[in-house]
TrEMBL record:
Organism field: Halanaerobium salsuginis
UniProt similarity note: Belongs to the peptidase M20A family.
Alphabetical list of CDD domains matching this protein: M20_ACY1L2-like
Name recorded for this polypeptide: Peptidase M20 domain-containing protein 2
Taxonomy of the source species: Bacteria, Bacillati, Bacillota, Clostridia, Halanaerobiales
Keyword Hydrolase recorded: yes
Length: 399
């Protein structure tokens, strides 16, 4: 059953319907021009051009990242020009996956956030600011980490990003993650003629895997560790003097994650000692914090989803993936809800193709409406915005 919409909300929905062709064309353009993380020049330029055309102020090269940007639209206060009002941001993602393209639906994410920002700018809101922030490279650790460190999200009252998925869901957590690369250094030798003269770096990597597999038995249920051998040598008759393994380590909170990483580093040191190798390790992607969604903000979002006819909204859940949106949620009140696109999982060609379908376009517009209506609810109800802020501060005080 739909909730009743106000005349202003009805007007906002109509504005979005009037923008449908432009929003769907934007999503399709990004889908048909997939670019990997930090190389999303076509996507970011297209987004900036559309936002500038709609009177948003554009800041390029945000935090020194070429494909990151911030587009701002200020509603001028009618009475007291010293007041700034709420600042609400919609985040864009637009990097693609290797080989698959936009199998995670980032083209839709970018178009939904951009469409919501533009639609809201057409309303006569007394005071406040809308930001549409372009965030590259979510698939490889994420620019939101660097943007967070640069203070881009620090003064925001609410931050939203809506993700296409196989279900509707407004409240879900994600795991904190660290990406560690282990490099072992040994000594080459002829593997048959003089094996005693070699120091096998690949053997150290194998012992690392054995040690980490033994560690799994003694980890909490929320912990995850998984990796690959990214370099195991050049030829079977040469003792490898260089070998490399890359791992993701995940946990529900940062403190426990760091305990796991410390144990893994000790295991790696042991593997080096066992084989006579030397070792170095470093992070090879940005680390992501655990996502702490704002429950009150999620509740408002759910209410607006229901108001536009979206049903079957799944309850709260702890997800086992990771996202750089987690870093944002430690700085400002944030949500990372999901909207159902079809009965298939992410990172697939099926999801990619669905974003270009008529069904995908319908979901896209519903997503724009959900985001825009949620922001409008905050602009129109300072008490709700204050309650969202209070919950965020209370949640952080327990961290």
């Amino acid at each position: 059953m739909k909730s009743r919409l106000s005349s202003q909300e009805e007007k906002l929905i109509q504005i979005i319907l009037d923008l449908k062709q432009e929003i769907t064309a934007l999503s399709d353009f990004i889908a048909k021009n997939p670019e990997l993380g930090y190389q999303e020049f076509k996507a970011s330029n297209k987004l900036k051009k559309i936002l500038a055309k709609n009177n948003f102020k554009i800041e390029e090269n945000l935090a020194g990242i070429e494909t990151a940007f911030r587009a701002s639209y200020n509603f001028r206060p009618k009475i007291n020009k010293a007041k700034t009002g709420l600042k609400i941001a919609f985040l864009c993602e637009y990097d693609a996956l290797p080989e698959i393209g936009h199998g995670c639906g980032h083209n839709m994410i970018a178009a939904m956030s951009t469409g919501a920002g533009i639609a809201l700018s057409k309303l006569k809101i007394e005071i406040g600011e809308i930001q549409v922030i372009g965030c590259p490279a979510e698939e490889t650790g994420g620019a939101k980490v660097q943007l967070s460190q640069a203070g881009i999200f620090s003064d925001l009252d609410a931050v939203m990003l809506l993700h296409p998925a196989d279900q509707n869901q407004v409240f879900a957590t994600t795991l904190a993650i660290k990406a560690i690369q282990f490099n072992f250094h040994g000594k080459t030798a002829h593997a048959a003629a003089a094996p005693e003269k070699g120091v096998n770096a690949l053997s150290a990597v194998i012992q690392l895997f054995n040690g980490l597999n033994a560690l799994r038995e003694h980890l909490r249920d929320d912990a995850r560790l998984h990796g690959i051998i990214s370099n195991g040598g050049e030829a079977a008759n040469i003792v490898p003097d260089e070998a490399e393994a890359k791992f993701y380590f995940r946990a529900r909170d940062k403190k426990y994650l760091m305990e796991i990483v410390e144990k893994a580093q000790n295991i790696a040191q042991g593997a080096a000692l066992m084989t006579g190798c030397t070792l170095d390790y470093q992070e090879y992607e940005n680390s992501n914090d655990n996502l702490k969604p704002n429950r009150l903000l999620a509740d408002i979002f759910k209410e607006k989803m229901i108001a536009i006819g979206i049903k079957d909204i799944k309850g709260p859940e702890d997800h086992s993936g990771s996202s750089d949106m987690g870093n944002v949620s430690h700085i400002a009140p944030a949500i990372h809800p999901y909207i159902k696109l079809g009965d298939f999982t992410g990172h697939t060609r099926e999801l990619r193709d669905a974003t270009l379908s008529s069904q995908g376009h319908q979901v896209l517009i519903k997503g724009v409406q959900s985001l825009a209506l949620t922001a409008l609810a905050l602009f129109n109800n300072p008490e709700s915005a204050a309650a969202v802020r209070h919950e965020f501060e209370k949640q952080n005080s327990k961290a």
